[in-house]
Specification:
2 domains; 10-stranded mixed beta sheet; two-stranded antiparallel sheet; binds 3-isopropylmalic acid; binds magnesium ion; 3-isopropylmalate dehydrogenase; 12 helices; Isopropylmalate Dehydrogenase; binds nicotinamide-adenine-dinucleotide; 14 strands; alpha/beta; amino-acid biosynthesis; globular; single chain
Length: 357
């Protein structure tokens, strides 16, 4: 089985290195092949998603991705910016379903900024549509404002849109996921204001007819943001569009103690996938050896489960993560008094050791 390893920028290489060590310490042999992506792709080949990198991602059985981006590339033309690499991979590989599980490990109840009783036992799944919405809608750009009070001035604009097929397929993914859990699905929209999301709500309601055993409710995104912080455990599965899902999943990350704990799987219709932590390249801590590698290690576990059919190995990694947390080991983002502060590599060492024991 071939895995494309795309470390990217900032803390990407540091955290992916630890996930690769974990994969290599399993009693399975994987063919791992690395390629530059993001700013690293731009530096090596003049493009954030070099042809060879895309080819490797397409032919591999799964992709393990770190993170891309750095402030120093923010002045480049948009097609050359590092973020285009992850957007291009998602689009080219048709990875329309993004699963972001927000699970609070009991040992981290005190690491969240929320009260322990609000978050303890948290286990929710955010399903984010990943290849549509305002992220990819055309037209977009900066133009001369054609009408209204600002006519003649420059204006920036983007297009929010969803085709029926795009909504139906992500709704099916969400209902099927809910079916395997507590059978409750919340569809998050902004139907009170946006045509796109009234349409979203209507289509999700229609797909629901095929899943009478799942309870569906609808919530506006502003309320959902509030409810996620007020009473997050009331949710089971959340399904939403690309932009709302981006925002809500970062908020949900803090319920788990740190964004460094939130893994993700981005899947196509056949469960081929790209696996990455939900966070970014964290340029503020890059190169310091303090980044939390657990979201990436847990993403590798998701890869084994969803794309490589190795659920047992995935379970082993997740148990090893639980073990190191129970041992009291913490990177600075999840550190609290009475625990032991470790760096990125030491955390990786501990997971590898826990796997062997
Ligand atoms: N999928 C991706 O590759 C991805 C995702 C999000 C942001 N980005 C890019 O990353 C760059 C930085 O963006 P940002 O600062 O808004 O978001 P970020 O997620 O990179 O960082 C936000 C904050 O969380 C901290 N953080 C993130 N991951 C951490 C980890 N594993 N351990 C400990 N702390 C961690 C950072 O230090 C920072 O303080 C930008 O160029 C952005 O476009 C990339
Ligand atoms: C880097 C950026 C393009 C990306 C997104 O907005 O999807 C990131 O924030 C994420 O959550 O994966
Ligand atoms: Mg994001």
């Amino acid at each position: 089985m071939k895995i494309a390893i795309l470390p990217g920028d900032g803390i990407g290489p540091e955290i992916v290195e630890q996930a690769v060590r974990v994969l290599n310490s399993l009693d399975e042999k994987f063919e791992l092949e690395s390629a530059p992506v993001g700013g690293a792709g731009y530096e090596a080949h003049g493009h954030p998603l070099p042809e060879g990198t895309l080819k490797l991602a397409k032919e591999a059985d799964a992709v393990l991705f770190g993170a891309v981006g750095d402030w120093k590339y923010d002045k480049l033309d948009r097609p050359l910016r590092p973020e285009q690499a992850i957007l291009g991979l998602r689009k080219n590989l048709n990875l329309f379903a993004n699963l972001r599980p927000a699970i609070l490990y009991p040992e981290l109840a005190g690491a969240s900024t929320l009260k322990p009783e609000v978050v303890s036992g948290l286990d929710i799944l955010i399903i984010r549509e990943l290849t549509g919405d305002i992220y990819f809608g055309q037209p977009r750009g900066v133009r001369e404002c054609p009408d209204g009070p600002f006519k003649g001035e420059r204006e920036g604009f983007d297009t929010m849109r969803y085709a029926e097929t795009e909504i139906r397929r992500i709704a099916h993914v969400a209902f099927q996921a809910a079916r395997k859990r507590d059978k409750r699905l919340t569809s998050v929209d902004k139907a009170n204001v946006l045509e796109t999301f009234q349409f979203w709500k209507d289509i999700v309601t229609d797909v629901h007819k095929e899943y009478p055993d799942v309870a569906l409710d609808h919530m506006y995104v502003d309320n959902a943001a509030m409810q996620l912080v007020r009473a997050p455990k009331k949710f089971d599965v959340i399904v939403t569009g690309n932009m709302f899902g981006d925002i809500l999943s970062d908020a949900a990350a803090m319920l788990t103690g740190s964004i460094g704990m939130l893994p993700s799987a981005s899947l196509d219709a056949n469960n081929k996938g790209l696996y990455e932590p939900s966070h970014g390249s964290a340029p503020d801590i890059a190169g310091k050896g303090v980044a939390n590698p657990l979201a990436t290690i847990l993403s590798a576990a998701m890869m084994l489960r969803f794309s490589l059919n190795k659920a047992e190995q995935a379970d082993r990694i997740e148990s090893a993560v639980k073990k190191v947390l129970a041992q009291g080991l913490r990177t600075p983002d999840i550190y609290e008094d009475g625990t032991t502060k470790v760096g990125t590599k030491e955390m990786g060492d501990a997971v590898v050791k826990a796997l062997a024991s």
